[in-house]
Fold Helix-turn-helix domain-containing protein.
Amino acid sequence: MRAWFDTEGVPPADRLAALDELFVGSDHPMGVRSPDAAGFRASIRAVDLAAVNVVDMAISSSEVLRTTRMVRQADPGLLCVVMGTTGRLVLHQGGREAVLGASDLALYDSSRPFGLRIGADGGQAALIRAHIPTALLGKSAGKLGELTARPLSGRGGFAGLLGHFLTGLRDDSGVHGPNDLARLAVIAEDLLRALVAHHLDADAGLLEEPRQGGLLPRVEAFVQRNLHDPELSPRVIADALHLSVGYLHRLFSDRETTVAAWVRQLRLERARRDLRDADLRDVPVHQIAERWGFKDHSTFTRSFRAAYGMPPRDYRHGLPTAAS
């Protein structure tokens, strides 16, 4: 795991605000508040295992909230699992509340508002959070509302296996090498899918479905997470998912488009949405282009005009096309 955020080195008065800014700017925005802003501390590490992201967090008593407005702002469609390691957690979503002690797990869905009280007994707490795109859950994704904010004991069953795996990632002191990441990614994905399927009493078909033709959802999830990266390319995508570039292109043969064209269209759609967002009206057009991975403003303008019939600045102000 790599260090992602640490309040050490941040002035005490700025620590809570710094973490809140980081959370609000994430791919599924959340806010954080604490009753002890002056004494607030947090240390966060993370690791990406292909489509699965795992975070290890030690944090002062606080509450993380994802509101309806934040869901509308951005939703990558994630199923998340949280596991307490010390202290007490309280997760609420969809009218339910799960109180979690050490080793207990619970699920939440990024597509709906939720709240997570960390250190609910007033002290510091530690937890591990993992998320996976719901697209990889197959038919199970439509039933997630039955599972969210329900306590799952991590002392046995699939929850215990997943908890043991996540704890091992947190405590790994170098046993695994870089070439093991792909293997760990497969294990993480399988455990998360198995946990969901088991608790939904799903049959084996639900587990096997994503395996058959399941590479495209993985490609889509990786691209969605990395659209902001100007270096994102078919080669980068293929390398990250341990595919050949040729095989990646073959996956798109039925879509009547190329990988590069699809990525460009996704970026244009995100930029188009931001240009019409009233909260972003003061953000310069070139910064919005950069936010979605366009290296060159003139290239962005030409691509935007070709896609939507007008330059981005005119689109932002709702001006008609020249043909109108």
Observations:
- The chain has a mean pLDDT of 87.
